[in-house]
UniProtKB/TrEMBL annotation, chain A:
Subunit structure: NDH-1 is composed of 14 different subunits. Subunits NuoA, H, J, K, L, M, N constitute the membrane sector of the complex.
InterPro entries associated with the record: NADH_UbQ_OxRdtase_chain4L/K, NUOK/Mnh_C1-like
Gene3D superfamilies registered for this protein in UniProt: 1.10.287.3510
Gene Ontology MF term list: NADH dehydrogenase (quinone) (non-electrogenic) activity; quinone binding
Top class in the EC scheme: translocase
NCBIfam families xrefs: PRK05715.1-2
Family according to the record: Belongs to the complex I subunit 4L family.
Main localization of the protein described in the UniProt heading: membrane
Keywords associated with the record: Cell membrane, Membrane, NAD, Oxidoreductase, Quinone, Translocase, Transmembrane, Transmembrane helix, Transport
Pfam families: Oxidored_q2 (PF00420)
The protein's name in its UniProt record: NADH-quinone oxidoreductase subunit K
Organism: Streptomyces kasugaensis
Transmembrane segments: 6-23, 28-48, 60-83
Automatic annotation (TrEMBL), chain B:
Natural source organism: Streptomyces kasugaensis
Protein name per its UniProtKB record: NADH-quinone oxidoreductase subunit N
Claim: Electron transport is one of the keywords in the record: no
GO cellular component terms, semicolon-separated: endomembrane system; plasma membrane
Assembly and binders: NDH-1 is composed of 14 different subunits. Subunits NuoA, H, J, K, L, M, N constitute the membrane sector of the complex.
Membrane topology, record value: Multi-pass membrane protein
Gene name linked to the record: nuoN
Catalytic reactions on record: a quinone + NADH + 5 H(+)(in) = a quinol + NAD(+) + 4 H(+)(out)
Residues in NADH:quinone oxidoreductase/Mrp antiporter transmembrane domain copies: 180-486
Broad enzyme group: translocase
EC number: 7.1.1.-
InterPro entries with a match to the protein in the record: NADH-Q_OxRdtase_suN/2, ND/Mrp_TM
Family from the record: Belongs to the complex I subunit 2 family.
Length: 99, 550
């Protein structure tokens, strides 16, 4: 099968993730959408590695996974701490500072 | 068919006969600044685990200061050894560049961080809680603000000494960021310095709600932008088949065919190049805080603990502009006719947007945040110059600006009322009558921001605009001077407010800091005046450091 189709899939997943970040309200869901964007990047890396016939892209995908895991640790810690303070994880409610 | 089979054999045959993987060659001495800082961060985590609570603060402070000073000495040693000019080369198997701009920016970041750590460690500003001296960080970050757990933590005299290793990790990432010589290292360094900053933002002792809100906003937007950067990296990898800067630059200038005819079918797709480089530049512009990617800046600067804000505003900007310079000058010079017009637009929007919106601000931290956006625009004018003068002027501007910012935010930590720092601009009225010295120092910083002659701000702005004008960006310079004039209005307004208004009866008081913050502010003043009065040596230094290795 033509690997280029997987590139379209990666672009589609990335777009779905980006749209989700912009329209969803729950911080956890927004965060999941960001993870979806990172995974779309991984898919693109692997497809390009297959197309070019070198392994750089596959190695980078591993690095991205580790970074995504580290981001989950930090992100969930911050979101949980604000949830315990405000009893909501809605990004619209976090609006003490404006303009 | 055969080419696909040979390509596929790369990872199917390898399972039968595991080839010998050569051990990578790492130049530890040339990476010493980064390694020292990251090593100290790891030791700092161990200190948190094993030392009793009462001695952690002193151990952490000593460790951080010694590590940063040692790393700075290592940078000086490398520069003196000629790695900034003649011996500049690419270390760590092509991942890290050791050259003039990298060493200059690393030295700046380390010096700024050293001063910032002083302000982190300040313990005399907040009134003592239950007889314990406290700093500007939460007693226990995990405790709900105002809850029982927090009260108990405050009573027990807990302090978040974890900030020292956290900030060391961030500094380690910042040291790698402007020196990164492939896109993977760029991305990893970005995350290594961003993730600790997200945590630091959430740790304020006072106004935890604002602090946590700023951390959530910074985290979600920062992760969003780094996802864009990563997708850009993926597309550039698709374009060039490699992520090293020189490799991509070669494919851009020579075209894919000359490099490897077998891969001409998959490499060199210009759509990938244009979209990919746009996305990567977007990720970097977010970190820089350029319009239209600036929306996080005011909220994060306002909500974060003020020492952290000062550190972020100074060091992050240096690191991010370093990476942006290297990307545009080493990877994408062949594409400059495409990115220059775009960066023109971004620079104009950033200068005008930052300066105009800053006028309406009523909070001193938000005002400084918008002012930092405007300054990002001025620096972008130097980036656009695409000349050696452009590089050296940006390096000089970054050095001058970071110390002014750090000093200004350190002064903000001093002005306090019952609720902590009095950041409302109206409360600063008449400050010059009450404490002339602090107000005068702040006035010097504001004048430097405004770019008044005899301060470092003027020298920096002059250098940047001169480089931009020489490269034919005359209109950009006109807009820059115009927005400097707008910006000067709100800086001078604060000076007028401090010196020519009657102090209010319920106004804030100025806390007497320990020698730590005093050192930080004094250093800021000295650098501001020296770079304004006798900039020649430092301009020369930046000029010598202005050649990238590729």
């Amino acid at each position: 099968m033509n690997p280029v189709n997987y590139l379209y899939l990666a672009a589609l997943l990335f777009t779905i993730g980006a749209a989700g970040v912009l329209i969803r309200r729950n911080a956890i869901v927004v965060f999941m959408c960001i993870e979806l964007m990172l995974n779309a990047c991984n898919l693109a890396f692997v497809v390009f590695a297959r197309m070019h016939g070198n392994l750089d892209g596959q190695i980078i995908a591993f690095f991205t996974m580790v970074v995504a895991a580290a981001e989950v640790v930090v992100g969930l810690a911050i979101i949980v701490s604000i949830f315990r303070t405000r009893h909501t994880a809605s990004v619209d409610d976090a609006s003490l500072m404006k303009l | 068919m055969s080419s696909v089979a040979s390509v596929h054999s790369l990872w199917t045959v390898a399972a039968d006969m595991p080839g010998r993987i050569p051990a990578p060659h790492i130049e530890y001495a040339q990476l010493a600044p980064t390694l020292i800082v990251l090593g100290a961060a790891v030791v700092g985590v161990l200190i948190e685990a094993f030392l009793p609570r009462r001695s952690r603060y002193y151990a952490q402070l000593l460790l951080s200061v010694v590590a940063l000073a040692a790393a700075f000495a290592a940078v000086i040693g490398l520069a003196a050894g000629g790695f900034g000019s003649a011996k500049a080369h690419i270390a760590a198997m092509g991942a890290i560049a050791v050259d003039g701009p990298a060493l200059f920016l690393q030295g700046t970041i380390l010096l700024v961080s050293l001063i910032a750590v002083f302000t982190f460690a300040e313990r005399r500003l907040d009134p003592a809680a239950h007889g314990n001296r406290v700093d500007s960080f939460a007693a226990q970050a995990a405790a709900v603000p105002g809850g029982k757990a927090e009260q108990a933590a405050v009573k027990a005299g807990f302090t978040t000494t974890e900030v020292f290793p956290i900030v060391l990790f961030a500094i380690g990432g910042m040291l790698v960021f402007p020196a990164a010589n492939d896109l993977l290292t760029l991305f990893i360094a970005l995350e290594v310095f961003s993730l600790p900053l997200y945590i630091l933002c959430a740790l304020a002792r006072r106004q935890r709600l604002l602090s946590q809100e700023s951390a959530v906003k910074y985290f979600l937007l920062g992760a969003f932008s780094s996802a864009f950067l990563l997708f850009g990296v993926a597309l550039l990898y698709g374009y060039a088949g490699t992520v090293t800067y020189s490799g991509i630059a070669e494919v851009i200038s020579d075209g894919a065919k000359q490099i490897d005819p077998a891969l001409a079918g998959t490499m060199g797709n210009d759509v990938l190049l244009l979209i990919g480089s746009a996305l990567v530049v977007m990720g970097l512009l977010f970190k820089v805080g350029a319009v239209p990617f600036h929306m996080w800046t005011p909220d994060v600067y306002q909500g974060a603990p003020t020492p952290v804000t000062g550190f972020m505003a100074a060091a992050t900007k240096v690191a991010a502009f370093g990476a942006l310079l290297r990307l545009l000058y080493v990877v994408l010079p062949g594409l400059r006719w495409d990115w220059r017009p775009v960066m023109w637009g971004v620079a104009i929007l950033t200068m005008l947007g930052g300066a105009i919106v800053a006028i309406t601000q009523t909070d001193i931290k938000r005002m400084l945040a918008y002012s930092s956006i405007a300054h990002a625009g001025f620096i972008l004018a130097g980036v656009i110059a695409t000349s050696e003068n452009g590089i050296s002027s940006v390096l000089f501007y970054l050095g001058a600006y970071s110390f002014v910012t750090l000093g200004a935010f350190a002064v903000v930590t001093l002005v306090r009322d019952a609720g902590g720092e009095a950041t409302q601009l109206s409360k600063w009225a008449g400050l010059g009558r009450r404490s002339p010295l602090v107000a005068a120092v702040f006035a010097i910083f504001l004048l430097a921001f405004a770019g008044i002659p005899l301060t470092s701000g003027f020298t920096g702005k002059f250098a940047v605009f001169k480089a931009a004008a020489e490269s034919g960006a005359g209109w950009l310079v006109v807009v820059g001077v115009l927005s400097s004039a707008i910006a000067a209005f709100f800086y001078i307004r604060v000076i007028v407010l401090m010196f020519f208004n009657e102090p209010k009866a319920e106004g804030p008081t100025v806390a007497v800091p320990s020698p730590l913050t005093t050192t930080a502010i004094a250093f800021g003043v000295v650098v501001t005046l020296v770079l304004g009065l006798a900039p020649q040596y430092f301009l020369h230094l930046a000029g010598q450091a202005s050649v990238f290795i590729r």
